[in-house]
Structure formats: C-alpha cells, structure tokens
Amino acid sequence: MSKYRISLATLLAIVAVVALGMAGMVSSSRFWTAAAATVTLAMLLAAVLAAGLLSGIDRAFWTGFALFGWVYLLLVNWDWVGGQFGHDLTAGLSAVAETIFPEVTITGPPQVSSSVPSAPPVGTPALAPAPSPATIASFNFFEMAQQRQIKIGNFVQIGRMLLALLFALVGGFLARTMAERRDAQARSAGPTATGSSSSGK
C-alpha cells in the first residue's frame, strides 16, 4: 500500500483558499462574492483542462476534482438540476448567516414633537412638509434590513463556492487514491501472470 503524501505547496494552497473564503464570508461584500465566483470558476475550468491534457495519477486527481466540483456547484446553484436536494446540501449556511448578522431592530420610539407648527404667513409659498422622525426611522429600518438580506445572500453564495472547492478537493484525493491502488494491483499482478504463463510452457 502506497503512502499518500501532500506537498507543502498544495497544503499552503488549501489553507490560502480556506482563509480567503472565510474572510469573504465575514465581509460578505459584492467584491468578495465576485472574487469567490471567479476563483471557483477558474479552478474548475483548469481542472477540466488538466483532466484532458495530463496523464497518470495527475489526470486521475484532476478528473475527480472536476467531477465532484462541477456536480456540487450545479446541485447547489441551479434549482432545475438539484431541486430540494441541492438546497439541503447548504441548508446550514443560512442559519450561520442569521447568527452572524443580527436582525435589525429600532432602538427606540421615534421622537415626535408635540408642538403644533404655526401656519406660514399669507403670501409666502407653501413648502413641502419635512419628513417626520417616524418616516425617517422606518426608511432607515427597511434600508438596514435590505442590506442585511444582501449580506446573508452573499454569505451563502461565498459559502457554496468554498464548499464546492473543498468537495472538489475530496474528489481529487479520492480519485488519486483509487488510481494509485489500481496501479499497485496491476504491478503486483504482473509478475504472477508472467510466472504462470512461463510455467505453463
């Protein structure tokens, strides 16, 4: 049985991707969402190229990487492919996002002035009334609630991209392990087959 080894460069790349993904999930900005989508797409497309152009163990790794990554990404992002199963794969991300980004609440009742405004003098143009504190507080509340929902959506999307890359990595290691085991079995069966054929003669 061959010992499986991960190079230092591969380990650093995995740590870098996870760290950047976590930083993007905490920020949950549009920039980080676009960056996560770009990196995920680039890596999965590069895996397709590597699976077609390389050979041996490397080809097995990138084939598993591409297969697992693309299937996971399709299931969680396209309802017409994954349906409910795709949503179940990342159901916990929304719950985590709800915990990280607290709900928006109005801290206190709006202060409304009790004095009755005096009528403008005769002959002066009528001005639009200033918005009341209740209207301003309501507008701020809905704007902050909308920003929270955007952050939650970005958090879930970045999490899906990160999980797709991690799942692709699992597929790559699994395919590489299978390929190494297949080659080891072929090597061990080779001398036996040759010896039996020579003894038959």
What is the total number of structural domains? 1
Radius of gyration from the alpha-carbon trace, in angstroms: 29 Å
Number of helices: 6
Structural class: mainly alpha
Can you give the mean pLDDT? 78
Compressed to H and E, one letter per element, the order equals: HHHHHH
Low-confidence stretches: none
Proportion of β residues? Answer: under 5%
What is the overall silhouette? elongated
The largest sheet is: none
Helicity, in percent?
over 70%
Extended strand count:
0
Distance between the termini: 32 Å
Describe this structure in words.
The chain is an all-alpha fold. The chain has one domain. It is 77% helix and 0% strand. It contains six helices and no strands. Helix 3 runs antiparallel to helix 6. The longest helix is centred in the C-terminal third of the chain and has 68 residues. It is elongated. The two termini are 32 Å apart. The model has no long low-confidence stretch (mean pLDDT 78).
Compact summary:
The protein has 201 residues and is mainly α. It has helices at 8-27, 30-53, 56-77, 79-89, 91-100, 133-200. Helix 2 runs parallel beside helix 6 (133-200), helix 3 (56-77) crosses helix 4 (79-89) and helix 5 packs antiparallel against helix 6.
